[in-house]
Amino acid sequence: MVRPFEERRDVLKSSRAIRTHQPELEFLTEKARWVRDEIIEVAVKNGAGHIAPSLSCSDILVALYYGVMNYRHSDPLWPQRDRLIISKAHGAYGVFPILADLGVIPPEEWKGFYTDSSTLTGCIERRPEYGLEAGCGSLGHGLPLAVGAAFGARLRGESWHTYCLLGDGEMQEGTTWEAVQFAVKHELSNLTMVVDNNRLQAMDFTERIMNIHADDLVRRMRGFGLDPVDCPGHDLGALVTVLSELKQIDSDKPGVVNAITVKGYGLKCMENIPKFHFRIPTQAELDMGRR
Ligand SMILES: [Mg+2]
104 and 184 in contact (C-beta within 8 Å)? Predict the structure, then answer.
């Protein structure tokens, strides 16, 4: 049954509840460091590329899972869980160690990631029992799915919130902007988009590939009627604060976080260097150190 608009608006307001327990910054920082170490160790050992784009967004995932989302790790299918659609699905390895740490994914599945000993592949596939809401290998599909989830929640009177993690390169996809239009039109304030804006896509800078400059994303989002918020994408405290505030704010608009990130963050040999999009570092490069 579709509820009246006013009633649905009341439900949306209740979807802004934040977690009652906020972890200490020290805890989040330690988790973020551990997730980066896990990504590097397992991906290098198992021969999985896309380490740099995964390091770019791992702090965002840590902030969401440990600090922002309503999520029961003992029950990944809990109906009232907040949804996370990872649209940059081939560059977000961090979700696997996080879900292993939370007890949702068996540790051996993560440790064997990208090999025949595991069912986890280099691209996130839809595995609800593993807490993975959607498969989004081809870019430009995640936001339409997230908008559908948010719109569905409203139609059904559900109070959970939907998050979508996008890459800045995929903001060139037409389907993404079609989804933005729909979300604006239907005032989906139960949706938050987080763009991992590292100013790189594939093997070059977005500025050189498609003439996309640093402030273009914010300018375009404003053109669609949204109010994007800039946030340092490796500052756990700032991420949790901004994401929590966007969930609570009394607005009729979807939220947008423009997370300013560094591709390859954490590995000194890799940071902001285009050739490392898919390339696995050598031992000599790894020996250059970590943050
Ligand atoms: Mg990028």
Answer: no
Give 39 Cα–ligand 1 centroid separation in angstroms.
Answer: 18
- The residues pairing with 132 across neighbouring beta strands, listed in sequence order, are 127
Residue 169 alpha carbon to ligand 1 centre in Å: 5
pTM over 0.85: yes
Tell me how far the alpha carbon of residue 53 lies from the centroid of ligand 1, in angstroms: 7
Q: What is the pLDDT of residues 132-191, one digit of tens each?
A: 999 997 899 999 999 999 999 999 999 999 999 999 999 999 999 999 999 999 999 999
Which domain CATH number covers 80?
3.40.50.970
Ligand 1 centroid–CA 112 distance in Å is 26
Task: Give the domain range for residue 158.
Answer: 24-286
Confidence at residue 250, expressed as pLDDT on a 0 to 100 scale? 83
Kindly give the distance from the C-alpha atom of residue 211 to the centroid of ligand 1, in angstroms, as a whole number. Answer: 14
Q: How far apart are CA 183 and CA 282, in angstroms?
A: 44
Please count the structural domains in the chain. Answer: 1
Q: Within a 13 Å sphere around the CA of 174, how many CA atoms are in the beta-carbon half?
A: 0
Residue 13 belongs to some domain of the structure: no
Ligand 1 centroid to Cα of residue 238, in Å, is: 20
Whole-number Å distance between alpha carbons of 157 and 200:
39
Residue 159 belongs to some domain of the structure: yes
Distance 255 CA to ligand 1 centre (A): 20
pLDDT (tens digit, 9 = 90+) per residue, 188-211?
999 999 999 999 999 899 999 999
CA 78 to CA 81: how far, in whole Å?
6
The answer to whether residue 63 sits within a structural domain is yes
Is 31 inside any structural domain? yes
Kind of pairing, strands 200-201 and 204-205?
antiparallel
Write out the two tokens for 272. Answer: 């902001």
Its sign, for the CA torsion 177, 249, 234, 91, is negative
